[in-house]
Description:
There is one protein chain. This protein is of the alpha/beta class. The chain has helices spanning 15-29, 64-74, 79-90, 107-116, 161-174, 194-209; strands at residues 2-7, 33-38, 93-99, 138-144, 179-180, 184-186. Strand 3, helix 4 (107-116) and strand 4 (138-144) form a beta-alpha-beta unit. The radius of gyration is 19 Å and the shape is globular. The protein starts with a strand and ends in a 25-residue tail after the last helix.
Amino acid sequence: MKILIVHAHPESQSFCSALRDLAVETLQGQGHEVRQSDLHALEWNPVASAADFSERQNPDYLVYALEQREGVKAGNIAPDIQRELEKLLWADLLILNFPLYWFSTPAILKGWIDRVLVSGVCYGGKRFYDQGGLAGKKALVTLTLGGREHMFGEGAIHGPLEDMLRPLLRGTLAYVGLDVLPPFVAWHVPYISNDARQGLLRAYQDRLQGLEQDLPLQFPRLDQFDDRLYPLAR
């Protein structure tokens, strides 16, 4: 496979960065072609703005998604966005590697999503979920967090981790057509022993070596809905 790893941690010596490094080593060792976008090393600009277009279809009023669509067609989109979009379209598998911040992604990764998943290419009109622009590709979320596993789930103090990841797994990755694989979660990372961290690395390596057998999570398909997107009778 051709694999793009988008990494969003500011510390190169972090456990999150160790997961990224392991993914590169393991996947390349299997013969896959791997490219990276280390967002902090790139000094990635996370802010979607009018500055993302050298020319605008409507210079008087900014509708960002519409300008994205026209900007890609006309070659007017910012060079950093174009480079990341080309990597994304090249890849068969997208891996997002990040620490959980405030029940969500770090701002720098959210900004990569906002700016790179461009309208007209990744989605648009009724091109979403199984009909999205990135259909046929896969996505894996790899994340670290400080909480213990028992703190997440039905009835747990923080509730299900799946609820926190829903905007990313469903509202972003599945929405643009990606087959979303079950996430890999490294629990309680800042507080566990080195032996425990090594165990997590071994578990991640095992997961990476079996990726092609992973079954994706289930999300809506457009053939389950009518032309106005009302659910069809079962």
